[in-house]
Amino acid sequence: VLTAGSRLLSVTFTPTDTTDYTTATAIVSITVTPIALTITSGSPTTTYGSTLPAIAPSYSGFITGDSASSLTTQPVCTTTATSASNVGSYPTSCSGAVDANYIISYKPGTLTVTSAVLTVAANKLTFAYGGGDGDNDADSVANPLTYTITGFALGQTAATDLTGTPSETSNTPEGGPVGSY
């Protein structure tokens, strides 16, 4: 396989029958032109607050035997998103690949930032029989339900970054029998 560019090819014909034939030599100029290679920027997905994934390119147009490692200079792929980017879609792009054997073009991709998952878990509540049911109604004994929220990213907290509070309910019967509910 000849690489792209101008080449001189020479051929020498040396006959086995030198009585009837003479040696012949010819030089021919040949131009090998580069072919199209498309580099498409990756389209990964990440969760809000996570470290951004690498933007991996994909390739279309390599000749048999060539691969990304055949390029003289590898592409650099980036995104406008940061690890603090809000949920949404952000463009990705690649550039900078070099190889004399290819005419390189680029196609963009999209990085998708999905919502982080917050988990709200009711905390265990124990109280004496007849001491109220913990459902925040008009019991004479204050046994409020409490909860823990986990999964915040980027130093966020319920106090600073949530609007409203989770609703609290209990299926404990009013003055009900001893047991777990």
Describe what this molecule looks like in 3D.
- By secondary structure, the chain is mainly beta.
- Helix content is 2%, strand content 34%.
- It contains 1 helix and 11 strands, in the order βββββββββββα.
- It has one helix at residues 158-161, and strands at residues 5-13, 24-32, 35-40, 45-47, 58-60, 76-79, 88-95, 102-107, 109-114, 119-122, 147-150.
- The strands form 4 sheets. The protein has a 4-stranded mixed sheet with strand order 4-9-7-6, with no helix packed on it. The chain has a 3-stranded mixed sheet with strand order 5-3-8, with no helix packed on it.
- A hairpin with an 8-residue loop joins strand 6 and strand 7.
- The chain is rod-shaped.
- The model has no long low-confidence stretch (mean pLDDT 88).
The amount of beta strand, in percent, is 25-35%
Write down how many β-strands occur, each being a DSSP E stretch of 2 or more residues: 11
- The sequence of SSEs as H and E is EEEEEEEEEEEH
Query: In angstroms, what is the radius of gyration?
Result: 35 Å
**Distance between the first and last residues' Cα:** 76 Å
- What topology, given as strand order, has the largest sheet? 4-9-7-6
Largest sheet: 4 strands, mixed
What's the number of helices? 1
What structural class do the secondary elements suggest?
mainly beta
The helix content, as a percent range, equals under 10%
Question: What's the rounded overall pLDDT mean?
Answer: 88
Net shape: rod-shaped
Ranges with pLDDT <50 over ≥5 residues?
A: none
